[in-house]
Amino acid sequence: MTDSIEFADDKRAFANSQQFQDIKTAAHEHLLARIEELGAEFGRWSRGAIQQFVDLEMDGFVRLRRIPINEAELRQISDALTKELAGFGPIEDLLADAAVEDILINGYNDVYVSRRGVLAREALRFSDNQHLLRIVRRILAPIGRRLDESNPMVDARLPDGGRLNVVIEPLAVDGPVVSIRKFRKDPLKPSDLLALGSFNEEIYNLLEAAVRSRCNILVSGGTSSGKTSLLNALASFIPATERVVTVEDTAELSLNHPHVVRLESRQGGFDGSGEVTIRDLIRNSLRMRPDRIIVGEVRGSEVLEMMQAMNTGHEGSMATIHANSPRECLYRLEMLAGFAGFQGSESSLRRQITSALDFIVQIGRLSNGRRRILSITEVTGVSDTVISTQELFRHESVVGPDGEEKDKWVSLGLQPHSPKLQRYKEQSRNAAAALQSQQGNVPPDSGGGGGFFGRRR
């Protein structure tokens, strides 16, 4: 075991050494000269054939130049060059790693990776900024997006569903800045999030009932808090007989539903022409006979169209928004509506928000990287020109006897206010009464109070 750890450490040390970069750069130039001799034939080779070609060329290259490296180091360089010629260079393994959520590159020798919500520096680097740009342009090539001095900022969706953002000079002062957000090939289901501890069984039951009862839900949270994953999971509760239209700036949602229409906004050209905004898409989606509209993220003037859709027969719609608390979420909605040119009074805007929204689900990433639902808040109306809410659940971290931090969700004992959940409230009361009867507290026909949710069968 110790030997294998030392071997892995030696590999990392060599891969990050200047010797590795110098040999790889010289060998890469040699390979490019050989590829030029081969011409178009090289473009038809498989990955395996390229690997074999690199191995043979590297063996001769090292012997002829008398480069002092051992067999393991030669293998490392050959693998790196194969990835360089047939893949995405130093980040190829990270792109293939299912545990990696984000890849953040701040110049050629500063790479950070997020796994399970925890960001850490990665022991890899590019040869220089030109090398980094070459790999980025290779990623962008199939998408048809341009990256140069006249267009120094690109935001694009990758073929596998991930998201790529690149900023280069002159906007990025210290070299190219690359942000890659990866998404799971098999989106998490509500049962997966329950097993991961994102919420408990009572919250599971409430969320399922809210979605099936066509409550309008806004998922609120900070960057990388799990908003999109939760929205994906909630959509699996939508009945299969309904038609769902998703509207996003960059398509990230992957709903587990049989009838989904996906719309994605389009940036304008160099002169600003041809732009199609989220607001345009939501307005158009109303003509597509949707049962529900799901907006990937509300961040601008589209907030007005979203609220109108929720108020005009598209109940059960959902969206995400950047906010640190349910109250801040409501403030942000008001602010965005003001920026969008809302013409009515402040009180009429708040009445429109309360009639559109039923629940705000606040999700966050804890200091240990775990993503948890922090609160579930119901929007109940307007009182004295202030939007009234009631918090049904609140997350608390408790420390067990062993010193380990554990999750706890506190039910505040309040019934949901929305008439859409009348059947659910009755089932909850009956389940609570039956549970108390089993415990010998009250007779089964008393209607019981106290308990809030029944257990999911």
UniProtKB/TrEMBL annotation:
Residue intervals of the Bacterial type II secretion system protein E domain: 85-363
A GO molecular-function descriptor: ATP hydrolysis activity
Ranges of compositional bias, category Gly residues: 446-457
SUPFAM superfamilies, alphabetized: P-loop containing nucleoside triphosphate hydrolases
Source organism of this protein record: Pandoraea faecigallinarum
Pfam families, sorted: T2SSE
Similarity annotation: Belongs to the GSP E family.
Protein name in the entry: Pilus assembly protein CpaF
Ranges for region Disordered: 423-457
CDD domains: VirB11-like_ATPase
InterPro entries from the UniProt entry: P-loop_NTPase, T2SS/T4SS_dom, T4SS_GSP_E_ATPase
